[in-house]
Write a structure and sequence with these properties.
Shape: globular
Number of strands: 5
CATH topology: Rossmann fold
Number of domains: 1
Helix content: 25-40%
Number of helices: 9
Largest sheet: 5 strands, parallel
Distance between the termini: 15 Å
Strand content: 5-15%
Radius of gyration: 17 Å
Structural class: alpha/beta
Order of helices and strands: HHEHHEHEHHEHEH
CATH class: Alpha Beta
Bound molecules: thiamine diphosphate, magnesium ion
CATH architecture: 3-Layer(aba) Sandwich
């Protein structure tokens, strides 16, 4: 797919996400809008996964460690046929499969349960190690938030991945500079992130996490070197795509009122190119 086609899909996913948050009266729209371009590129260009056979042993694995942005994953999975598009309307409803955090038992396409931040990378290290032990070529991708990287468990996983030379593992850090109620810089500032991962033996690359060409090229298997896990520090904006949400920490989990909903939808519609 061309970057333009991918941008169109990401725009459609943002509009569906906005509608679902508005209707459910809950969600994490800021972190969803920062990661949607990355998820779109992964599912429409990079990952080898199929709704027809969601547990195929040779599939690539994606762990959305920042599980609070589950809604974005649900919408992408629905776009790929893992669940009916209409089911998105059940987000957060009683007995829905679409809970606030993803559940692998309930929903095909979800590789592991996430939500408590700081665990997805350790699971990804296990997956990548399993592929190596089995002599398989499938790849593991983990997406974390930047605030999430403050969790100490990540740094044990980072050491292990380098030690075991997991070049089949890619960590994508959604570096939107904001966490739940404050900027990363005011809380426990990890920036600059890339030199820290590099010091732990990782191959680190920084990209614009909203540029489809950059995302696709950095995630392509051709660019992966031998013997080192890769970290992609994706510079993003929380709330990307809507003027009054972008880079505004209030939109971590705020719900738009009707006027804000209409304005946000109009901005996203105007941006379809
Ligand atoms: C262990 C743990 N502590 C606290 C929370 C509550 N929580 C949910 S989202 C969030 C902020 C995450 O910030 P970041 O990782 O930067 O994510 P993003 O900016 O992409 O939304 C927090 C503290 C949680 N889910 N898990
Ligand atoms: Mg963040």
């Amino acid at each position: 797919m061309t970057p333009r086609e991918l941008r169109k899909i990401a725009n459609r996913i943002r509009r569906r996400d906005l509608q679902a948050v508005f209707e459910a009266g809950a969600g994490h729209i800021g972190g969803e809008f920062s990661v949607i371009d990355i998820l779109t590129a992964l599912y429409f260009e990079v990952l080898s996964v199929s709704a027809e056979n969601p547990t195929a042993p040779e599939r690539d694995r994606l762990v959305l460690s920042k599980g609070h942005t589950a809604l974005a994953l649900y919408i992408v999975l629905a776009e790929k046929g893992f669940l009916p598009q209409a089911e998105i309307s059940s987000f957060l409803q009683h007995k829905s499969r679409l809970n606030g955090h993803p559940n692998r038992v309930k929903l095909p396409g979800v590789e592991t349960n996430t939500g408590p931040l700081g665990h997805g990378l350790s699971v990804g290290v296990g997956m990548a190690t399993a592929a190596k032990l089995d002599g398989q070529n499938w790849r593991t991708f983990v997406i974390t938030g930047d605030g999430e990287m403050q969790e100490g468990s990540n740094w044990e996983a980072i050491m292990a991945a380098a030690h075991f030379k997991l070049d089949n593992l890619t960590l994508i850090i959604d570096h939107n500079r904001l966490q739940q109620g404050a900027p990363l810089a005011d809380t426990n500032n990890l920036a600059p992130i890339a030199p820290k991962l590099a010091a732990f033996g990782w191959d680190c690359i920084e990209i614009d996490g909203h540029d489809m060409s950059e995302i696709c090229s950095v995630l392509s298997a051709d660019t992966i070197g031998k013997g080192r896990p890769r970290c992609v520090v994706a510079h993003t904006n929380k709330g990307h795509g809507v003027s009054f949400m972008a880079d505004n920490v209030a939109w971590h989990h705020k719900v738009p009122n009707e006027e804000q909903y209409k304005q946000a939808m109009a901005e996203l519609e105007a941006a379809i190119s």
